[in-house]
Amino acid sequence: MKKSALIVTIMVATVFVLASSAYARRADDIDVMIDYTSPADRVSERIPSTPPVDTDRDGVADEIDNCPLVANADQANFNSDSQGDVCDDTDGDTIMDSVDNCREDENTDQANVDRDALGDACDDSDIDGFNDDVDNCVDIYNDPQTDQDEDGLGDACDNCRLVANVDQANSDGDRIGDACEMDWDNDNVIDDQDNCMLRDNADQIDTDGDGLGDACDASCDGPACPAPAAEETAPTVEQHISDGGCSLVTMGGTQSAFTGLILMVMAALSIAGIRKGSR
Cα–Cα distance between 221 and 52 in angstroms, integer? Predict the structure, then answer.
């Protein structure tokens, strides 16, 4: 009897435990299905959030865009300040950094003599320590910037180092500019200022004021004019032949050395003929 009662008690206890477990699982399932959020929360979840503002439509929200009013998807910012290059003017020259060829050196004119990526104000083409905008020989290394004739061109690139000639005129294309070309007549007056280029006339007297000095002006008719001189014409062909300090000049004009030689030969022949006839 006692044994039977024990078996019944065990069976009842087992059934109770199983029932309790089932009830607990059912309660958990019910909790999962119950939505404990408030109606207001459920409504807000169904309404999409407001998209971020992107005024310049470059794909970068204004709140993180370094140029919110100017499109710049790449957000380039060479100096890493608060503004991107397309809306930043670091040097204050009114040229935005994104197109300024000297971002940190003011250069409104954007001058760029060698047409590379850098403007003259921040470029040193010849790497002599002087930027192109102040270098008196932009393409030729010249440190120091020696300029003996003070014409703005350094000696290293000046075809007349001792005579000012900003235009660097050089008619014959040699290494020497017209302003300091050879002094043909050695009268210490350089040719481009000499009113008788081929005749020594250091005094440069020009009585009739026609541009030709009296020393080579055959048409001088003033009362103070000297005896008629052979008129000088500008040379058409110039040959510099240096040989012991002498120069041979070939030209078209009345002073042609060739013409003089012909006249001397003709005179010699005439004298020879006269002597022969007198015999």
Answer: 96
